[in-house]
Amino acid sequence: MNIDMIRAAAERLSGHARRTPFLNSPFIDDIAGRRVWVKPECLQHTGSFKFRGAWSALSAMDDAQRSGGVVAFSSGNHAQGVAYAAKLHGVAAVIVMPSDSPALKIANTRAFGAEVILYDRETENREEIGADLSAKRGLTLIKPFDEPQVIAGQGTCGLEIAEQAAQAGVTKADVIVCCGGGGLTSGIALALEAEAPGLRARPAEPEGFDDVARSLRSGGIERNNRSAGNICDAILTPQPGDITFPILHRLCGPGLVVSEHDVLAAMGHAFNRLKVVAEPGGAAALAAALFRQDEIDGEDVIVTISGGNVDAPMFQRALETL
Amino acid sequence: MNIDMIRAAAERLSGHARRTPFLNSPFIDDIAGRRVWVKPECLQHTGSFKFRGAWSALSAMDDAQRSGGVVAFSSGNHAQGVAYAAKLHGVAAVIVMPSDSPALKIANTRAFGAEVILYDRETENREEIGADLSAKRGLTLIKPFDEPQVIAGQGTCGLEIAEQAAQAGVTKADVIVCCGGGGLTSGIALALEAEAPGLRARPAEPEGFDDVARSLRSGGIERNNRSAGNICDAILTPQPGDITFPILHRLCGPGLVVSEHDVLAAMGHAFNRLKVVAEPGGAAALAAALFRQDEIDGEDVIVTISGGNVDAPMFQRALETL
C-alpha cells in the first residue's frame, strides 16, 4: 500500500469519478473560529466517496477476473458505489444485504443494476453466503475498506485535497476525515504524506464508536462495544482494519469524537451555508471543526463531507437544529 | 453587450468566483427520459450565480467610482452577491430588499456588511428607491440584470457550461435556465452562441410569471400581472429587460413554464439524487427538465440550479414531496 498505487488509481479514475469542489463560507468560518475548507464527497457519483474505491478496485482487476463479476456486503454507501461502478464497467454485481435493510436502499442498489441477495441477520451468516456465491459463481469479493485497491481509490480524494489546498494558499492544516474502518482516512493520509506534508489527517468518529481514536492512543487495534445505535450509520465499523490501522497509526493526528447533536447541527450548517446535503456519518468531520475547535490548531482546517445519502425524516431533524 | 465582455469578465472572476461542477444522476435521467446535466450555481459564493455578475460589475469599475460605494435592489440573491463582492473589494454596499424576502437572505445580506433598506413590493417602486439613493449618496447602482457588466459576469457560467458539456460529450442540447429578468439566461445564451453553437438556451419560469415565455412568443416585451404570490421569489421579475430581451429573442428557444408543485418536487429530487440544496426559483429549470419533457427534444438536456438560498420550512415542503 503506497502512494504509487494512489497515483495509478487517480489515472484509472480520471474522467469517471468526479473531481469534487473545495467549498468554504465566511459564516462557517465564524462558527469554527478559523477558516474551514470543505471537500464535499456527497457530490461524488452515488452520493459518497465509496465510488472512488469501487471504481479503483474494479478497474485494477484483469479482464478475466472482472468479467466474472463482483460481490460486496453492505447495506449502504459501499453497496451503491460497487453496484454503480460495476454497471459502468458492464459487469455483474451481487450485493448481499440484510433483509431488514430500508426498502429504499434495496431499491436504489437494484436500480444501479445490482442483483441483491437478502439474508436474515438472525439465522444466516453473510460471510458464508459470500463464500458460497464466490465459489459457485466465480465472483470476486470487494471489501469495504481493508483492501489495497479500495484504499488507493479513496486516496485520490487526498490528492485532490492536496492540490486544492495549495490553490487556496493553505500549506499547513489538519484534514479531518469522517472515519469508519479507515479506508478514506488512510488513503487521504498517504496522499497528503506524499503531496502536502504540511497537511495532517485526523479521524472524526461518533461518541461510543471511537475505536480509531482509542486505537491511535493505545497503539493497538481497539474494538467498539456496540455495533449499532447511532445516527452515523455509515461509519459504525467494529474496529480499524489490519491494513488501514498501521497507516493511520503512522500518519494521523489524534482522533476527534462528536455527539449526535453536533452531527445534526453540522448537517444543518452544511444545508444553510454550503448548500450541500450531508448524511450523519458524512457530517462528523465538519461537526468536529465547528464544535471541537479547542482540539484543533492553526488558522485553517480542512474537512471531508464523506457522503449525502440521508432520508428526509433524518434530514428534517438536522433542519430543526437551525 | 458581446462575447468579448464575457471573456473579459471570466478573466476578472478567475480565482474569485467558483467554477461549479457539472452533476448528473441516473435516477434523474430516468425521471426525465433523457440525460440531464446539472450546473449547480447554488454552490457558488453566496449560494447563487449572482456573485458572478456582482464581482464582474465591481471589478469593472474604476477606483474612484468603486470607492464611492454601491447600491443594489434585489429580492435576495443579487443582494447577497453584491454585498459579498463589495465586502471583498473593501467598499460600502446599500441593498434595497422587499420586506417579504426570505429571512435568511435578509440576515445574510446584513452579515456581509451591507446596509439593508426594506420596501413593500406591492406599494413601492424599487427602481425609484435605488435611483434616489444613488443620487443622494453618490452610490453607483448595480442593476440586477439589465446591466452589461452584470450580464457579462453571468455569462461566465455559460462559458463553463460550454466547456463541461464538451467534456461530457454533449454537443447538441437545450440549456434550460431559471429566468427572472434574463441576466443569467442572456449571458449564457451569448456564451453558448460563441462557444457551443449546438447548445441553445431556454428560459424556465413559474406559472403566472411567464413574462419571458410570452415575450418570446409575441416578439415584444410582455409584463406579468402580479409581482408576488409564488414560491419562486428569486425569479418573480415584472418583465424582461431592455438589454436582455433582444438577446433572448435572438438566441433562445421557447420558454418553459412550471408549477409550484413541480418546483418543490424538483427540489426534492435535487436533495435526494444530486445532494445539493436548490431554492424554489433555482429549481425551475430542473422542474422543466423533469416534468415538461414533451416540450424538450434530444438525448441530453442541461439545466442550471441557479441558487440555494431557501429557509428550512420551505425546504421541508420540498422534502414532503418525496
From TrEMBL, chains A, B:
<dbReference type="Pfam" id="PF00291">
    <property type="entry name" value="PALP"/>
</dbReference>
<keyword id="KW-0663">Pyridoxal phosphate</keyword>
<dbReference type="InterPro" id="IPR000634">
    <property type="entry name" value="Ser/Thr_deHydtase_PyrdxlP-BS"/>
</dbReference>
<dbReference type="GO" id="GO:0018114">
    <property type="term" value="F:threonine racemase activity"/>
</dbReference>
<keyword id="KW-0456">Lyase</keyword>
<dbReference type="GO" id="GO:0030378">
    <property type="term" value="F:serine racemase activity"/>
</dbReference>
<dbReference type="GO" id="GO:0070179">
    <property type="term" value="P:D-serine biosynthetic process"/>
</dbReference>
<dbReference type="GO" id="GO:0005524">
    <property type="term" value="F:ATP binding"/>
</dbReference>
<dbReference type="GO" id="GO:0003941">
    <property type="term" value="F:L-serine ammonia-lyase activity"/>
</dbReference>
<feature type="domain" description="Tryptophan synthase beta chain-like PALP">
    <location>
        <begin position="14"/>
        <end position="305"/>
    </location>
</feature>
<dbReference type="GO" id="GO:0030170">
    <property type="term" value="F:pyridoxal phosphate binding"/>
</dbReference>
<keyword id="KW-0460">Magnesium</keyword>
<dbReference type="InterPro" id="IPR001926">
    <property type="entry name" value="TrpB-like_PALP"/>
</dbReference>
<comment type="similarity">
    <text>Belongs to the serine/threonine dehydratase family.</text>
</comment>
<dbReference type="GO" id="GO:0000287">
    <property type="term" value="F:magnesium ion binding"/>
</dbReference>
<protein>
    <submittedName>
        <fullName>Threonine/serine dehydratase</fullName>
    </submittedName>
</protein>
<dbReference type="InterPro" id="IPR036052">
    <property type="entry name" value="TrpB-like_PALP_sf"/>
</dbReference>
